[in-house]
User: What shape does this take?
Amino acid sequence: MSSKVLMAAKGLEIRFGGVVAADDVNIEIHEGHNLAIIGPNGAGKTTFLNICTGYLKPHRGSVTFDGRDVTGLAPRRLVRMGVARAFQIPQLFTEHTVIENLLIAAAAQARRWSPLTPIATIPERGEMLHLLDMVRCAHIADRPVSELPEGQRKLIDIALALALKPKLLFMDEPTSGVASSEKFEVLDIIAKALAEAKVTAVFVEHDIGIVERFADEVAVWNRGEVLFRGVPGEILSHPDVIRDVIGETV
Amino acid sequence: MVLLVAVTPVLAPTSQVLLTLAFAKGLAVLGIIVLLQAGQVSFGHALYFAVSAYVAASVARSFGGELVTTLLAGVAAAAVVGLVVGVFVVRYRYIFFAMLNLAVSMIFFALLEKFYYVTGGSDGLQVPRPTVVGLTLERGEFETILFYGALVLSLLAAWGTHRYLASPLGNMLRAIKTNEVRLEYLGVSARSTLLSGYVLSAALCGLGGALMAVAQGIVTPEYAYWVRSGEFVFIAILGGSGSVAGAFVGALIYEGVRTYAAAFASDIWQMVLGIVLLVIIIFGPSGVTGLYQRLMDRLVGPARPRGAGDSERAPGAAE
Amino acid sequence: MNLQLFALAFFDGIAYAALVFLVAVGLTLIFGVLRVLNVAHGSFYAMGAYATASTVGAIVAAGYSPWLAFPMMIIASALIGGLIGGPVEKLLLRRIYDMEEVLQILVTFAVFMILEDVQRLVWGVQPYFESSALMVLGTVDVLGITYTAYQLILLPVVAILVLVGLRIFLRHTLSGKLILAVTEDREAATAIGVNVDRVYLVTFVVGASLAAFGGALASATTSVIPGMGADMIVLSFAVVATAGLGRIEGAAITALLIGLGRSFAVYLAPELDVLVPYLIMLAVLLVRPEGLFGMAHTRKI
Amino acid sequence: MLEFRDVTVTLGGVRVLRDVSFLINTSDTVALIGANGAGKTTTLRSIMGFTHMTGEIRFLREDITKLPPAKRPGLGIGYAAEDRRLFSAFTVEENILMPAQVARLTAQETTRRLGRVYTILPELKEMAGRPAGSVSGGQGKMVALGRALMIGTRLIMLDEPFQGLAPALARRYAEALRTLRDHDPDVTLIITESNPGLLRRFADRALVVERGEMREGSLAEDAPDPLHPASPATTP
Amino acid sequence: ADKPDELKIGITTFLSGPASVFGEPAKAAADMIIEQINADGGIDGVPIAASYVDEGAGGEALVSEYRRLVEDVDVDLMLASISSGNCNQLAPLAEDLKVLNLMWDCGTQRIFEENDYRYVFRTQANATPEMLATVLYLLKTKPDFSTIAVVNQDYAWGRDSWDIFQTALKAMKPDAKVVAEFFPKFGAPDFSTEISRLQALRPDVILSTSWGGDLDTFVRQAAQRGLTNTSTLVLPLAESSLQRLGSALPPGHIVGGRGDHYFLHPERVGDPAFDDFMKAFHDKTGAYPIYPVFHMSQALAAVKAVYAKAIEANGGEWPDREQVVDAMDGLSFQGLGNEVTIRDDHQGLEDQLLGTTAKSDEYGFAILKDIMLFDAEDITTPVGEESIEWLKTLGPDFVASVEPKTYAD
Ligand SMILES: Nc1ncnc2c1ncn2[C@@H]1O[C@H](COP(=O)(O)OP(=O)(O)OP(=O)(O)O)[C@@H](O)[C@H]1O
Ligand SMILES: Nc1ncnc2c1ncn2[C@@H]1O[C@H](COP(=O)(O)OP(=O)(O)OP(=O)(O)O)[C@@H](O)[C@H]1O
Ligand SMILES: [Mg+2]
Ligand SMILES: [Mg+2]
Assistant: This one.
């Protein structure tokens, strides 16, 4: 691939007790190419994201970002370098309202530390409302997150990551829990926004429809290993992938 | 409300010192409330109360003692100690945080008792009455000045803390309570955020301690005892842990109930206090300020649907 | 310090450790399950001591065998746990499990204050001292020093029995498993049919009874005085935190550390005596932030 | 077998369900569908007794509105929550066995049911000995499913059971559930699921939750996915 | 001034916490004595009305309540307090509020050595004569001991009293060797380790100025483990524990009563007022009076005496408050113990009584024999001197120079 390598993982290895969650994982993430990760449950997809974002330190191997070795760097360091993440299980500030969640992200991104300015008045507010609108949550801006159903939490979790204006965005099953009637639409909008802002996305996904539509590349994980990697059309029709991941069509 | 408090000494002169003491405690409680925002409880904040009180006492004893410098020295000392201890304790959460603070404060308490040649042991140190802008005052005048000084300081501290809590930093502090992982993933260090809150809370406790020292005219190791730390937490909840005003309302009510219970039910004052507390928690878990809010809601109609954390939640509706 | 002194300090240490463990283990249990830091624990401890001292005193005064002191200790602690602990859980704590942690601490604090005065109203302010149980067991001479068999032998043995008993109960019985399940997620436990209310009630009563039992055992060696509960709370809290949340074994080891630390301090640096529990806690948490046996709680992401 | 009569649920001041009434017959397989936040989860939680509600819920002709939540699983109701809620201190198998132990089933019966669970969800067997706290998101969903199957002899309620499962797996489970239902006419299934393709595989009926109200829906028309014919969910 | 309807007195005492072992009996005594005074027609016809404040409620509550009593209730005088810490805090306050304050039970010797007060007086002795008398008694009864250890509570009283005792001992018996100093924490439930250590060290004498439950526990554990057979205990406050300790305190140990306070006071027994009170108190509370009861009786006796004196000085008219304060100087009064006189520095001169325990079948607890009664004049720091410095000036010959009254039976 011709474009610049944004992040590269080399020889990642990690095991939990007897479970090998990453076994010599080598993969490059190219700027502007959205990468979808698919694979059976427990294959090590989330673990890979955890390593790339600094949540876990690999037992062996290295991660570089923008040419710098970032292995084992704390998540907040990576975030400041431009790596953001949306989670499989939404990670939100449940005692804050939706808009407050976003404002915190915006303030963190813009490094607004002034202890005497109310957060509600920061200039990024409009931008955040727009972001909420984009994930179709504008109407719940003032609801406390603790009251929200799972699906909306997922969307807000993604919005939080977007608020950080990252260069590289990891999304762990962005559409699971989002009603099927909405997910394509919402993801369309997000994808467009990402493309405009030149954000590269890496996402774990079980919905093959979504993968086909939004991924430039697909990587197939199994038992901590990257089995296949390539363009969606090729990978998704591979018989092994169909058997282990997608399931035969009826 | 503020006005009411401000004119009280004119109407009931003896309440003046009681109110000054309540303000001093209220300031310390404000410090506790700051930490409660992050979901952390300290059972050792009496440490800062005492550090500041002892430093204020020493300053008042050795440098002739001007009120302003005495208070400032106390607060500065508390903030510095808060920073040093804070760097260590912000790594911990919940009971560990609570107990480490307790441990540090108890060590300080023990030191105050042990080095009794310096600290006066459990007899403590007398604090000579400081001068006010160079003037030496009679007790009466001094107490009046101290009362209004305390009132103004409390208002300032309450306003400042309120702004802080509404600011990005304050919101991040509150975010620690619910999701540190996400905070880290926003590029914010949960520890530094907590440290900023911790130093602020130490400084507030320090202000309360210094004020208490000059108002009481004596400092004793009891200032650092865990019971006092417990008392601060107690008042914070009594007033309503969510609001800045709660600190002072709680302190006023607490001091009032305790003093009058000790006077009129001198052998069962603890029981009286305990029952008052239970009633408040069971019927108004968001404290006195919450009760007031609810009353207003009922009279004027609710401002907006109440959030989570209210008693009406389904059993076990855990997050 | 020669070997003899070392041995002596060791004996004193384990006797004290046994008592600390017995008192703290109930708190650890309650905290482990209900996640409520029970300040009223100190009251149960004190009331167990008062109830035992006063009833045993009456029994002995009436001319009955002092050996009755031992069954009396068990009866008194069960009664305190059931008759006072039970209603406290059922009528008060039950209303507050959904509230914030601090509120829960506060409720137990209020209960503590009320019970302090109740004790004074019932038992007055004069110290009680009832050591019949200790006297009947006699003394043992070790290396020329006289120890009471009660402290040197009985207390450690009881402590070990309680430790082993609780371990077996929690690890190897269904009720124990359910307790652990409820601890983690009340709603999920309800969804598989566990009567959460009952588990809580039983745990609290058992925990309170253990506290009272600690007091009952202590009453044979110490004066039962107003305010004795307050001191025990702080110590127990320190044990809970050092041990790791709700960890029974941790409580045992912490108690041992505190007991030995204290007696060595008395021998080597009496000035540090008071600080021993805190220094141990600092040292342990510095190395193991989750306590001796605690597990790092990682959030699911 | 399950009936809602004028059920209203208010959460935090918001009326999430409004005067909802419906009837489900024994051995029905019902899909509960609706947009995010419509109230699907709330409906299931009400049956479990986890919400404050007014109205009446009847199960097997008995009014269970006032029945303590802990007694409901004893009626043969198994519930797999949307957010898994495993007991992380226990192993996967202990998690699955626990409802049987609470109900004090005989060893024989327990083994029989465990066998059934492993037949439907063979992947669980592989991770039986691992701490439930360490399994991945999708694996956790399976464990929750297994646990519900263990006790649900009359009514099994699954809240988004396939969410986060790899499609091949989800499909296998859907089939297994259908087999289960076909073999056991006493069992009633309620499933909330947003993947219409899977639902159509085995649901008889659809109930649509919308703006706090419940209406009958047809699976054929209420699960359109016209936007994305390529999605395997809708591949014929 | 006009005669008021009642003479209002505020009394601070411990009603909660460990020190309530002193506070409660003192309150009971105050109630009885005031009732008696009022029954006898009050003070020049004016009945006394007392309000109590719990010292156990903590410093702020105490100060607030003290002020409320003085400023709102407008009490005529205050009796405060038991705790030395509280005395330190309240003395300057009383001075500022210009209210007569009788310190009725606190022991810190520093108050009048470091400050001059107009309104504050002490109606009993202080730590210096109490400890000095103890040293003297020890040296007179057991002159040949060579080693001593101390087990005191870890707070101001425990530290200060040891300071005084040690200074006096060094001055009068320089060869006495201190082999161990233990300061277990206040309220310690267990002294096993200290006792093991003491058994290994075998000091001739073990001093403990502890009180209340701490003292009881220490003595009992020491007795249980045979420490009382090998060492002589010196317990300056144990008069207040004798009845509770029962037979646990064996014969042959030295006990003091913080003044000449003992329900079998050799000079007072036989006085009908004394005997009647002892009996009445026992009937009411089930126990014989202990030293705080004596202290309370002295404070109230001082109240009675000072009003009588001031009224006389005022030509039979009711005195105003300043006149009452003036009348305090040089006042003599007698409570349940011997007569007490207020010195120029406002310190009371109170005799000291010590004895050695003996078994008593009549009472079921140890009573005192070989009682010595020290004259206050001989053992109280002279006016204007600082206790520790003064004690250092004493020499071994001081022991013989003080001649207490002795009661052999
Ligand atoms: N504690 C609460 N306070 C206020 N509103 C709440 C609370 N809990 C849930 N709600 C509201 O109830 C509605 C229904 O939620 P529910 O979880 O039942 O939706 P759902 O249909 O299961 O959605 P999803 O498909 O996203 O899981 C939502 O709009 C939500 O905002
Ligand atoms: N902290 C941990 N401790 C022990 N085992 C772990 C831990 N984290 C992950 N694992 C194990 O590592 C394997 C990979 O987990 P991971 O969460 O990466 O899977 P996944 O591919 O994301 O699966 P899913 O699609 O179900 O989310 C799983 O078998 C899981 O049980
Ligand atoms: Mg995953
Ligand atoms: Mg749902």
User: Anything to note?
Assistant: The radius of gyration of chain A is 18 Å.
